[in-house]
# Entry
Amino acid sequence: MQFDAELLLLAMAPVFLACIGWEAWHLRRTRPGESIYSWRDTFCNAALALMQQAADKLAWLANMPVYAFFYARYRIHTWQAGWGWASFVVLFVAQDLLYYVFHRCSHRVRWLWAAHVVHHSSARMNFATAFRQSLMYVVAGMWLFSIPLAVLGFPPTQIVAIVLINLGFQFFVHTQAIGKLGWLEYVFNTPSTHRVHHARDNRYIDRNYAGVLVIWDRLFGSYVDEHPHDAPVYGTVEPLHTNNPLKATFHEWASMAADFASVRGWRNKLRALFAPPAWATDCHARRAARPVAPGAT
Ligand SMILES: [Zn+2]
Ligand SMILES: [Zn+2]
# Structure
């Protein structure tokens, strides 16, 4: 198996666009009046994808030497050169587990949430939502979660390839046009599983972190089934209300910096950076409810 991984997502672009066209057409016929797509939202998604792809190229340039360092110095196994089926399966499963850990941390640690929130900040859910990515993942430290793959003996080019394969798969779970998929629901992340992940309803929040395999959610207790009748409400607990890709990218970083500056004591400052995002929501709610001092303007 030999291919240029960096071109994978580019090569898949026509398939992605065809899926978006089909879904928009299909949903307009089957669910008229629901406006599951909007031009502004879709353009924002596309802009975010382009920004993230550009940043990603630079990020790989910076990260590859790190992986090469760990591969050269600390690998615990040497696989046969090139792609073999056994090594591919180990790499695929290990990376998918690491993605699950990264994704779960991204919802529980504000520093990582500041980048990941972009993906959740639309109140819509369609194939184009998959394009909502953040150029700040490299700053947040997403790349750290792939270092164990180098230690397991996988060279940097294969690490890049498997990360992109995982990301490419995830495009297909962002849709409201596909229902439950039978036994596949027990093994793979599916549209139904991932719709739950994008919902902000209480019973769905912080659930279903799967990349490709849903077995991690089922093993580690983060799985919840999509309710057969109640449609999920999509978006974040603190809605963004903008289609500006720059605001979408930086709003949580700005909010985090403001909280860090305004709270008192180092414990609270650390909470502003690393506590679960709900800490910030509570903090903002308390601040909004605080009575204004007489004479204050
Ligand atoms: Zn998420
Ligand atoms: Zn998603």
Summary: The chain has a mean pLDDT of 92.
